[in-house]
Design goal:
- The protein is an alpha/beta fold.
- The strands form three sheets. Strands 3-9-8-7-4-6-5 form a seven-stranded mixed β-sheet, sandwiched between helices. Strands 11-10-12-13-14 form a five-stranded mixed β-sheet, with helices on both faces.
- The two termini are 35 Å apart.
- It is 41% helix and 17% strand.
- Pfam families: HGTP_anticodon, tRNA-synt_His.
- One of its GO terms (molecular function) is identical protein binding.
Length: 398
């Protein structure tokens, strides 16, 4: 990935690109983390038995609270998106007001190489999120106006391009337009078609040409786009149609070569191309599907639970769990002196914790720890000094 050019130009391009795009993200006001049996409750006991308080807690407009289950889904989506951006050499830019997931390339480069990479990134993210089949439509903004007013094409040539608006396809459609004499005799039209042909050549090398559809009916409503535009759409299957899944555009972008110059005091022109991932739209789709199919979400990443069948073993449990934590193992226990074993095992099943270590009087005498698989309910005795290694082995195999 080539360098982005001057940093301040990159900042201007990205920042104003975010602000002018249609909002797809929500400011997260607060994330509430719930412990296993306790929940913080805000109560007001001011002026008891007097007039009612006028103090009302409200969620600010444009924000919402996110539950632990929702947060798990959100983090997986964001990790996938950010991981893909980093894989393509992105430098991170954060803004204080918005939760945005955009990727932009700024600088003077050879035609269509950055554009092709943006489309590749979009394909990688949508494939990785496993949202179902999708297609990315590409075109350019306001075809006839762009061709006549800005590119200098004769109106009749632009009208001929308009005949193709109802068509969509790949390289074959572009080749068909190349063969049209009313287009092939115009230099500007040939240049534009040449760029699109070059773009599809790069997309083929990236292995994503079958996911891209040249569609002149596509239009983006933002004025700052100056060239190629694209939009990713989820394709609805018959089963999804029956379940009333809400599908549609989940990512979009395009080229905006003049936006930086509009805000730079010296008027520097920096060509830019970028994409936006509709995180909130994707989150809503995933959440809706999980509700429909009744999928359960783990809200913790706990790997091992420390349990005991007997009373007065809190100290031993604390020493054991400290040993697991020090080894980098995610573990927890119940915050009670003498919890019932059945309660502890039920908690593991409810929370999806895969392993339980059990310590009691007999285990202490024999110098062992029982290691229990929650799923199979099978137990094996492990020497105390080998416990950490055995747990790490099982976790690596799962």
């Amino acid at each position: 990935m080539p360098p982005f050019g001057f940093l301040h130009m990159r900042v201007w391009a990205s920042l104003f690109g975010q602000l002018l795009r249609s909002p797809r993200a929500v400011c997260i006001r607060e994330v509430h983390f719930h412990s296993q049996f306790a929940e913080a409750v805000l109560t007001s006991q001011l002026k008891p038995q007097q007039e009612k308080s006028n103090f009302i807690i409200k969620t600010p407009k444009g924000t919402r609270d996110i539950s632990p289950q929702q947060m798990v889904v959100r983090e997986k989506i964001l990790d996938m998106v950010v991981g893909c951006f980093k894989r393509h050499g992105a430098k991170r830019l954060d803004t204080p007001a918005f939760e945005l997931k955009d990727f932009d390339i700024a600088g003077q480069f050879d035609p269509m190489i950055p554009d092709a990479e943006c489309l590749k990134i979009m394909c990688e993210i949508l494939s990785g999120l496993q949202l179902g089949d999708f297609i990315i439509k590409i075109s350019w903004k306001d075809v006839r106006h762009e061709m006549v007013a800005k590119k200098g094409l004769a109106p009749e040539v632009a009208d001929r391009i308009g005949d193709y608006v109802q068509c969509h396809g790949g390289v074959s459609l572009i080749e068909q337009m190349f063969q049209d004499p009313r287009l092939s005799q115009n230099k500007q039209a040939l240049d534009g078609l040449g760029d699109l042909k070059l773009l599809f050549e790069y997309l083929t090398l990236f292995g994503i040409a079958e996911k891209i559809s040249f569609d002149l009916s596509l239009a983006r409503g933002l004025d700052y786009y100056t060239g190629v535009i694209y939009e990713a759409v989820l394709l609805q299957t018959p089963a999804q149609a029956q379940e009333s899944f809400n599908v549609g555009s989940v990512a979009a972008g395009g080229r905006y070569d003049k936006l930086v110059g509009m805000f730079d005091p010296k008027g520097h022109k920096v060509p830019c191309v970028g994409l936006s991932i509709g995180v909130e739209r994707i989150f809503s789709i995933v959440e809706q599907r999980m509700k429909t199919f009744g999928q359960k979400i783990r809200t913790t990443e706990t790997q091992v639970f420390v349990a005991t069948p007997q009373k007065n073993f809190l100290h031993e449990r604390l020493k054991l769990i400290a040993e697991l934590w020090d080894a980098g193992i995610k573990a927890e226990l119940l915050y009670k002196n003498n919890p019932k074993l059945l309660t502890q095992l039920h908690y593991c099943e409810d929370m999806g914790i895969p392993l339980v270590v059990i310590i009691g009087e007999q285990e202490m005498k024999e110098g062992i720890i029982k290691l229990r698989s929650v799923a199979s309910r099978e137990e094996v005795a492990i020497k105390r000094e080998n416990l950490v290694a055995e747990i790490q082995k099982r976790l690596s195999e799962s």
